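Batch job 17 of 40 flagged for manual review because the log was empty.
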Amino acid sequence: MTRRALVSLSGEEQELVITSLPVILATDSMRVSCVGTAVVKLLEVRCDRQQTNEPIGEKVTQLTKDIQQIETQKRHLQAQIDALLLQSNFIAGLREKTEEPFSQSLARKNLSLSEILDFLNFLGSQYCEYAIAAGECKAQLSELEKELQTLRNALQKIQTPQPKENLNVIVGVEVQKAGEIELEIAYMIANATWHPHYDLRVNSANDQINLSYLAEITQSTGEDWLGIELTLSTAKPGHSTLPPQLKPWYIDAPMARMEEMAQRSMPYPPAMALPMPMFRTPAKPAKSEIAENNIHESVITPNPQQGSVVTLKIAGEGKIPSDGTPHKITISQQDYPCRFEYVAVPSLVSFAYLQVYVKNSINGVTLLPGTANIFRNHSFIGITKLENILPGEEFKLNLGIDKGLKIERDLVELQVDKKLISNQRRITYAYRLTITNLLSKVASLQLTEQLPVSRSEHIQVYLIENSPEIQQGKTGILNWLLTIAPQEQQEIYYQFTVEHPPELTVVGLDI
């Protein structure tokens, strides 16, 4: 904290008193200086505690208003959770009611296997979407509950009548020439913290993302910060600036083990053993041996603090009340170009997920680790965490399901050969996937399928055909990288076989 004041001196002053400073300031860190037209000699600095009664009416009104706003947000979130739960229960009820009709239709061959799979994919994706949305709402509700509890504690604290202690700083002066000075006093104070926070707003129309760099500041120093200039830093002034020192790295052996080894090395029975020293002083090692020993003793290394100090200056005037609750202020706001990519796993979900890659400006500031709210075209997507992102570094954001890509997955072949080939049973599977780009721009898609992976030497899996042709990855993974033009449709086809002895039962081959 740094305070400045203009003081007019007549030449008769002996003490200057700075009143109503927080009592928790570190008096040892206090520094006083002055500049101006007056000639002044600073003699001493001392502190004096004072008790005052503070008016609380305005703070009670503000805290009550904040509590009411958060309670309103909680009610809205709870209504969303209840609606999502109702939709999830409807999907679950639909699944239960359709089990028997679908079984009968399948037995009568009124429905194909692909139609049943489409319906199951629909139920699964909808249930998954509702569950994810409900989870995000519950996480927000939990954060609001924490903030509400903090506000209630602050309200209860200021409503409890108690005298407030302040600190007066008394500066002894000797005025040698009258005039005007600017007096500056600086000190360290506890009970103030800050955390980075971000709002990320993705605009699909122009391939840009707006990043609002926010500081979430909490302080309970005993005084409100009004109209201040604020500088945020990651420096830790309380930490030691000296490097750590290594201590001797001793090794030893248990006494019982030493005695046992000594007894085994004797040529006569233990009862006749002669006295001998338990430890021998080793000969002085040669110079090369000393170097080798030092290498082994220096294995333990200190864990340095990662990263350098980041300092951020806040434009404008800050207003942070001393209420112990988080207050957000904007550090900077900037648009960044971004690159969109889609990811799809049709065997699990028949929708594509949108991911966006953003590159921090080479001349920008370091983005510190913190939470981020993600918005897409004015819709809230969810909350994520950003790691430490340096200027020029790229990072990825997940934007959830995007229905701009339509994906259909059909089992077009399932054949069990009646004749044995080389005394092996062969089962052939084939899938066709159709991807339609319903967007008005080119879409990059990474589509992933998988083959079964055998854990038995008697079961073999072979990829027979795939189009577009790709190489099979580890653990049976198949990855296609597609570029799909607007309103274009592309197909993927792959076929594989599973071979095993006819007397062997294959477990896990559920399609």
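Reviewer: the log was empty due to a logging misconfiguration, but the result itself is present. The helical segments are 57-107, 113-159, 255-264, 287-297. Unflagging and moving on to job 18.
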